[in-house]
Design a protein that fits this description.
CATH architecture of the largest domain: 3-Layer(aba) Sandwich
CATH class of the largest domain: Alpha Beta
Shape: globular
Largest sheet: 6 strands, antiparallel, barrel
Distance between the termini: 49 Å
Oligomer: single chain
Order of helices and strands: EHEHEHHEEEHEHHEEEEEEEEEE
Strand content: 25-35%
Helix content: 10-25%
Length: 368
Amino acid sequence: MHKQRVVVGLSGGVDSAVSAWLLKQQGHEVVGIFMKNWEDDDDSAYCSSNVDFVDAAAVADVIGIEIEHVNFAAEYKDRVFAEFLREYQAGRTPNPDVLCNAEIKFKAFLDHAMRLGAGRIATGHYARVRERDGRHELLKGLDPLKDQSYFLHRLNQAQLAKTLFPVGELPKTEVRRLAEEIGLPNAKKKDSTGICFIGERPFREFLNRYLSHEPGPIVDERGRTLGQHVGLSFYTLGQRQGLGIGGVKDKKAPRGGGEHLPWFVARKDLDRNALVVVQGHEHPWLQYRSLVADDLSWVAGDAPRAGGYGAKTRYRQADAACALDALPDGLSLLFAQPQWAVTPGQSAVVYDGEVCLGGGVIASAELA
């Protein structure tokens, strides 16, 4: 690739830092940008934005590139956070990282970089882009434990044509090793696990400020009340932690067999404001055979043909074999094996081998 100006999103983390270094090694003119997407409670103990900027600036200094601090908080609030709250209020569980990539990192940030005269942008995501017959394909990152194509599935041809993922070809262990070797100040910084804008602060406490919450009963499949929930928005299907209910002996289980099985959220009954829980990871109410998704986005610009593919209904899972069918305003996926706790609001992402084709937002799912 010819040498050009590449604007790198420097987050303060090790992946984007190594990405910037790799691009500089390749001879590109590299400029770093630190994106600030959230400022509602910047003085709180949880807001790591200031710390992250200091780390990003230290990285830029070591690599020898300029860094600019850009505030996208207004765009974030309009385009991502408002949608995030709407979904939660409707009883669904949205994926803000998917929205953030589509609306901020590869839209607002991309536009800003182009105004700075960039030829391309780059981020520290574990994914790859391949050009084939004039089309751009989104591929999984080569490190199967770190692949982030799931979060990038809403990117389109115009965005991919302008994007580089320098660490997508590398295993994470190699990225860490390079960071040490280069002497990057954040070489040992742990990966962030928080939602892209909230950081590491307690999620329920955060949502509390923005969502109305009406407590109601936690019931089992037979309708017995086991406890009280703090508001349906704060729970997601398959959730096990934070339910505040102990084991209840299952009369039908063999002696000593049923009482210690953990409880999982299986349904939200919005009409009754009840949270329905079941015991045991393998409970039939947690096993789904098919789903319908809408709000589709395809990397190639048009939908793949009906047929057999792999799909993920949550980030950390292996591709599940399924049959894809087009619907008038969405798609259906029928799985070869039941899928666990398929959750409305999350993304169903479709793959053809290592190629991420795109996907949609899960609207409904049918039990196995």
